[in-house]
Structure formats: structure tokens, C-alpha cells
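Example record for the data management plan.
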Amino acid sequence: MTLGSIIAFAAEGSGKVGGQVASIGDALLYALFTISVVFLALLIIFVCIKIFSAILNAFDHKKDTSTEAPAAAAATSAPAAPKAAPAPEEEFSSGTLKLKGCDEKTAAMIMAIVSDNTGIPLSELVFKSITLVENK
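Corresponding structural encoding:
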């Protein structure tokens, strides 16, 4: 059995080759051929994704190095100053919190309740804003 007859059989889709029912060996050969075509297509897609990923990462690294180069040059020319230890309240800061119609005590309770109900530690949560919604 040749590759051409396998392709003709697959295109025909009747389960018969030349008017005869395909044997078990032929059926397994057809199945193996079909599976290999599918895996070959998946392999081609995988390789394309890897190539595009490498290309995009190369462009991303070029952009990062162009923005970091002036900063690195400035850092090497400036004398090294000792870094001050951050204040304790700044160590665990995760940004600013905007309170809209809500006082700090209520916001603290809301954050504690959310942390408790979700099971996520408060130090891992980031709150952007808390807005008071009044019932009508």
C-alpha cells in the first residue's frame, strides 16, 4: 500500500479500497497516518509559537536595554551614596489607597473582612480604592 492510496482512501471516506473492505492492518496504517499528520501540524504550530516568542522577546529586550543604558551611565558616574533603611511603614506598602466617602477605620475593617473571607493574607492584597455605596 502506498501513500497515494492512503490519501485516496482518506479522501474517499467509504471504508473500502478498490471496492474491498480495508483489513485491520490497513485500518491501523490509516489511523497511524492520520494521527501523524495531526501531530505534525501541532509540532509546526509549536515551532511557530516558539519563533514568534523569541522574536517578540528580542524586541522587548532591545527596548529595555535602551531605557536602562542612560540610567546605568548616570549611576556609574554618580558617587555611591549609602542607602537609607526604609521606614517600617514603607516596608509593606503596596501603593496608595483612595477612600471615597469612607473613613480610615471603616476601610481597615473592610480590608480585614476581605482578607479573612478570601483567606489571602492582608500583606498580599492590594486595594486601589474603597468607595462607600449608600442604599436608596
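Summary line stored alongside the record: Helices lie at 3-12, 24-77, 88-91, 104-118.
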